[in-house]
Amino acid sequence: MDDLWLVVGLGNPGPGYAGNRHNVGQMALTQLADRASASFKNHRSNASVAEARGAVEGPRLVLAKPNSFMNVSGAPVAALLRFYKIEPARLIVLHDELDLPFDALRLKFGGGHGGHNGIRDIIAATGTGDFTRVRIGIGRPPGRQSAADFVLRDFSGDERATLPNLLEDAVDATQLITSDGLTMAQLKFHTARP
Asked: Does pLDDT of 56 surpass 80?
């Protein structure tokens, strides 16, 4: 299983949440599945799963969207790691990040949850923070709006115009991590855009 990766997109289930900022990880994962012509099917781990190749002749990817709410994503992720016999070091989690401006992308391995409840639950369920995160910037709420309210709102019209490029970058970064490693992906995607 040396060429197998688990790639998880975080979000909340159901059409009512589909366009929320909190679901940007699942939006990116859907785009990755579309690029690979892979379709999602329900899995006994309480997740929707698609199997794909990262690129032609590239590593094999298990793409997963937990069917649970964001704050309890850990159990499905832990179940998938066990089912596919994948080590947490070969887990990539795509998620929204309040601490990054909208349209920014940061990649990291390991560390704490940074206040993100989905990441917190995955760390609790797997017993480790040693996995890769693709942090997709959604920015901070304006004025006095609470973070909890902000993440459960859809992207603004201006943001929706830029969102496809951000999702493409997240997909490209994920594929580059699996093919060439995290450092190469960081060198490419941590550089400011012109």
From this structure: no
Tell me the pLDDT band of 59, cut-offs 50, 70 and 90: confident
- Look up 22 and say whether it is catalytic: yes
pLDDT at res. 53: 77
Q: Is residue 89 a contact partner of residue 127, using CB atoms and an 8 Å limit? A: no
Q: What is the value of pTM for the model shown?
A: 0.94
CA–CA separation, 148 vs 159, rounded Å?
19
For the segment 80-107, the average pLDDT, to the nearest whole number, is 95
B/e letters for 111-144, b = 16+ CB within 10 Å, e = fewer, are eeeeebbbbbbbbebbeebebbbbbbbbbebeee
Domain at 4-189, CATH from 3.60.40.10, 3.40.50.1470, 3.40.190.10, 3.40.50.2300? 3.40.50.1470
Specify the pLDDT at position 191.
67
- Alpha-carbon span 126 to 26, nearest angstrom: 20
Question: What are the sequence ranges of the domains in the chain?
Answer: 4-189
**DSSP code for 75:** H
Q: Strand pairing of 132-137 and 91-97?
A: parallel
Enumerate the β-bridge partners of residue 49: 41, 64
* Joined tokens for residue 182: 């995290």
